[in-house]
């Protein structure tokens, strides 16, 4: 079991990586994120110049170019928020389940949030942003518990592949239910695509604000669980031996990640594979210490989502592609590579 | 010890009796299924916004002109009903072939992404290259075969482990689904009903041009596959045992894969990957037939019955007309999860 993550190998290179190396990488990731954010504001179906961007950032929206930039700013902010939430949630989930295939999308948790939002809209008239987020988080939590329970049944407990299979099956199931609920309701069906393919288009600061408290709480809980996750990585017995309350640590961390991906799904729809790809890449950069891995995953997740959003705008000019399509195209091969790396024993 | 076992002679008799009983049960089940398929098919021709009595329907099918019914039944309901039967048979056959060959109920073409491959190719062909009919079917079949080879190749690592193949198939399927979304978005014609056809399957607006390739494929490929039924059953015992029984393992496997993929792809090109039909047909058939003989024919009939009934339910049971794939998806999803729970509990192949 322990060999599932490349964690407990006393790999000298990872263990003694000097802090300065990590700091350097931190600066690099920050710079990349900043660059991508600028690109996200500058690139779109309408070309804009630097002067337009500056004046738009100053609050002016008189020319069409400036108006375009003004529209792209909240979108970029949303991509950064959602990307960091998903990257962080993925890293926490991989730590909690000690499962390299864990991802809010693969485990069906995003779809749970999506279905809850759709059901709330269709049956309970929950149209306000805040109620929508509450419902989404509740749906995400239910889906998480359900998938974990299904995957944990039987011999060997929740092995990576059992969990992934349970998650994929649950996703397929929830997708059908979303369609069945949304289709009869013309008012909802119009934007039903956004409940099945995640996207960040059409964001405004107004519909962005309600989600901030949820993301902030989720962020704090997740980052605080870093120490607990480090102990869990040693295996439950050893962690308990070291004085860690295993169930509590696991529950708290799971709560943080569910909050994050529930809130992210409420504003952006279900986005697959960001939470899967990002932590793996970050582990290559900064090693397996969750105190570093978690913030890195957040930053790298933001970068990946902003980049995917920009790509979506470039390849489908003059219209645009939802970011969820791009992340699936990029992430699925990665998923396959991780599956292939698993040893047959786990299969 | 010996007291626990019956005398050898009685044993042989019991086995023989058992075999006869199971064979006759199988015959009964297959007959009942076939009758049900025919009855449901005729019902789909009769009911709708206007009801036509059996006599009218039969006359239309025989080629007579009946005012009103000739158009509604002959042009609208007949192609739809025929495609429902054909697609159901194709999905049932293709699904149970994969499940038998890979010895895993989860390994049906719709779970492991082969249907999505055919669907993605069909969407690309129709939306981007404005193809129709045979051309769409051809590229759908080519793409489905390509996806099958790709998944098998990716899952091969000193032997193919069932679960690895399924997970890789799920990953490939996720990619292909986003290709479908990509094409539909890029074409700037995101029409939800049309999108649903390629994402979950739909029989709405079926025309004879779409039905024909699938029908021909069924008539050509199904007999080939049925001819391999005995060999396929032998493969379930394992490759070595099958070879010892005189089965040419590789040849059987190749024929079975190509025909099964072909059946699924032709049906998908016509009506989209109707969710979970190829996944459900085999296990349901196994339940009602019991462990005797090949499952190919019962599974095909169960597939046809599933599509027909789901289409009826989708059209008339609710205020909204649901595409058939949404109905089968909602029906199939709980079963899929039940199957995973059961397999996990038994500590089976997972």
Automatic annotation (TrEMBL), chain A:
Coiled coil ranges? none
Which GO MF term does the entry hold, naming one? transmembrane transporter activity
Annotated membrane-spanning segments are 23-43, 73-93, 105-127, 133-151, 163-183, 211-230, 251-272, 292-311, 323-340
Q: What is its main location?
A: membrane
**CDD domains xref list:** TM_ABC_iron-siderophores_like
Topology term for the membrane: Multi-pass membrane protein
Q: Which UniProt keywords apply?
A: Cell membrane, Membrane, Transmembrane, Transmembrane helix, Transport
**GO cellular component labels:** plasma membrane
One GO BP annotation is:
siderophore-iron import into cell
UniProt cross-references to InterPro entries, sorted A to Z: ABC_BtuC-like, ABC_transptr_permease_BtuC
| Localization per Swiss-Prot or TrEMBL | Cell membrane
Q: Return the similarity comment.
A: Belongs to the binding-protein-dependent transport system permease family. FecCD subfamily.
Q: Which PANTHER family match?
A: FE(3+) DICITRATE TRANSPORT SYSTEM PERMEASE PROTEIN FECC-RELATED (PTHR30472:SF1), FERRIC ENTEROBACTIN TRANSPORT SYSTEM PERMEASE PROTEIN (PTHR30472)
- Please identify the protein, giving its name as recorded: Iron complex transport system permease protein
From TrEMBL, chain B:
UniProt entry tagged with the keyword Cell membrane: yes
| GO annotation, cellular component aspect | plasma membrane
A biological process from GO? siderophore-iron import into cell
Query: Which GO molecular function terms does the record list?
Result: transmembrane transporter activity
Where do transmembrane segments lie in this chain? 28-52, 81-99, 111-129, 135-153, 165-185, 205-226, 254-281, 293-310, 322-341
Q: Which UniProt keywords apply?
A: Cell membrane, Membrane, Transmembrane, Transmembrane helix, Transport
Q: How does it sit in the membrane?
A: Multi-pass membrane protein
Q: Which CDD domains match?
A: TM_ABC_iron-siderophores_like
Subcellular location, in the record's words?
A: Cell membrane
- InterPro entries in the record: ABC_BtuC-like, ABC_transptr_permease_BtuC
Known Gene3D superfamilies for this protein?
Answer: ABC transporter involved in vitamin B12 uptake, BtuC (1.10.3470.10)
One Pfam entry for this protein is: FecCD
> Origin, by domain of life?
Bacteria
Sequence similarity: Belongs to the binding-protein-dependent transport system permease family. FecCD subfamily.
Q: What PANTHER family does this protein map onto?
A: FERRIC ENTEROBACTIN TRANSPORT SYSTEM PERMEASE PROTEIN, FERRIC ENTEROBACTIN TRANSPORT SYSTEM PERMEASE PROTEIN FEPG
Official protein name in the record: Iron complex transport system permease protein
Source taxonomy: Bacteria, Bacillati, Actinomycetota, Actinomycetes, Geodermatophilales
């Amino acid at each position: 079991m322990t060999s599932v993550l490349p964690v407990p190998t006393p790999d000298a290179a990872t263990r003694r990586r000097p802090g300065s190396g990590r700091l350097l990488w931190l600066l690099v990731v920050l710079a990349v994120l900043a660059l991508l954010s600028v690109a996200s504001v500058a690139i779109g179906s309408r070309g804009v110049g630097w002067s337009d961007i500056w004046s738009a950032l100053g609050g002016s929206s008189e020319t069409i170019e400036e108006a375009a930039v003004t529209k792209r700013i909240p979108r970029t902010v949303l991509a950064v928020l959602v990307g960091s939430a998903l990257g962080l949630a993925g890293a926490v989930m991989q730590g909690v389940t000690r499962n390299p295939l864990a991802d809010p999308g693969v485990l069906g948790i995003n779809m749970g949030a999506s279905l809850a939002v759709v059901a709330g809209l269709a049956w309970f008239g929950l149209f306000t942003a805040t109620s929508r987020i509450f419902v989404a988080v509740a749906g995400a939590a239910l889906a998480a518990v359900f998938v974990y329970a299904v995957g944990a049944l039987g011999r060997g407990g929740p092995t990576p592949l059992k969990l992934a299979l349970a998650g994929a099956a649950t996703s397929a199931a929830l997708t059908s239910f979303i369609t069945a609920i949304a289709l009869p309701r013309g008012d909802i069906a119009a934007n039903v695509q956004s409940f099945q393919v995640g996207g960040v288009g059409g964001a405004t600061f107004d519909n962005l604000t309600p989600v901030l408290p949820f993301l902030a709480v989720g962020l704090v809980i997740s980052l605080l669980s870093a120490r607990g996750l480090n102990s869990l990585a040693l295996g439950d017995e050893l962690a308990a031996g070291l004085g860690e309350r295993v169930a509590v640590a696991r529950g708290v961390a799971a709560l943080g990640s569910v909050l994050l991906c529930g809130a992210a799904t409420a504003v952006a729809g279900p986005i697959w594979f960001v939470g899967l790809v990002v932590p793996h890449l970050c582990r290559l950069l900064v090693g397996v210490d969750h105190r570093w891995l978690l913030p890195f995953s957040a930053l790298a997740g933001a970068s990946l989502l902003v980049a995917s959003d920009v790509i979506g705008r470039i390849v489908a000019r003059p219209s645009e592609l939802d970011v969820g399509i791009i992340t699936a195209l990029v992430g699925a091969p990665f998923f396959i590579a991780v599956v292939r790396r698993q040893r047959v024993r786990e299969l | 010890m010996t007291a626990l076992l019956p005398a050898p002679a009685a044993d042989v008799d019991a086995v023989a009796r058992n075999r006869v009983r199971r064979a006759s049960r199988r015959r009964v089940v297959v007959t009942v299924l076939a009758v049900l398929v025919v009855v449901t098919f005729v019902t789909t021709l009769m009911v709708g916004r206007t009801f036509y009595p059996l006599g009218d329907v039969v006359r239309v099918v025989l080629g007579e002109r009946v005012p009103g019914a000739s158009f509604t039944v002959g042009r609208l309901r007949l192609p739809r009903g025929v495609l429902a039967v054909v697609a159901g048979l194709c999905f049932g056959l293709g699904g149970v072939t994969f499940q038998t060959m890979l010895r895993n109920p989860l390994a049906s073409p719709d779970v492991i992404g082969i249907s999505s491959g055919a669907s993605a190719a069909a969407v690309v062909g129709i939306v981007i290259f404005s193809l129709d009919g045979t051309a769409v079917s051809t590229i759908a079949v080519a793409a489905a075969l390509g996806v099958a080879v790709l998944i098998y190749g990716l899952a091969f690592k000193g032997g193919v482990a069932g679960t690895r193949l399924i997970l890789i198939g799920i990953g490939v399927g996720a990619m292909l689904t986003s290709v479908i979304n990509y094409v539909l978005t890029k074409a700037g014609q995101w029409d939800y009903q049309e999108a649903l056809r390629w994402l979950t399957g739909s029989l709405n607006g079926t025309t004879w041009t779409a039905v024909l390739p699938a029908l021909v494929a069924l008539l050509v490929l199904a007999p080939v596959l049925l001819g391999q039924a005995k060999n396929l059953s032998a493969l379930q015992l394992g490759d070595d045992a099958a070879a010892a029984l005189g089965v040419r393992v590789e040849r059987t496997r190749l024929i079975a894969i190509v025909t099964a993929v072909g059946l699924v792809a032709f049906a998908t090109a016509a009506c989209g990957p109707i969710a979970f039909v190829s996944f459900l047909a085999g296990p349901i058939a196994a339940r009602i037939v019991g462990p005797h003989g090949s499952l190919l024919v019962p599974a095909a009939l169960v597939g046809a019955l599933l599509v027909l009934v789901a289409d009826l339910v989708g059209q008339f049971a609710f205020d909204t007309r649901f595409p058939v794939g949404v109905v089968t998806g909602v029906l199939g999803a709980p079963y899929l999860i039940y199957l995973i729970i059961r397999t996990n509990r038994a500590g089976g192949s997972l």
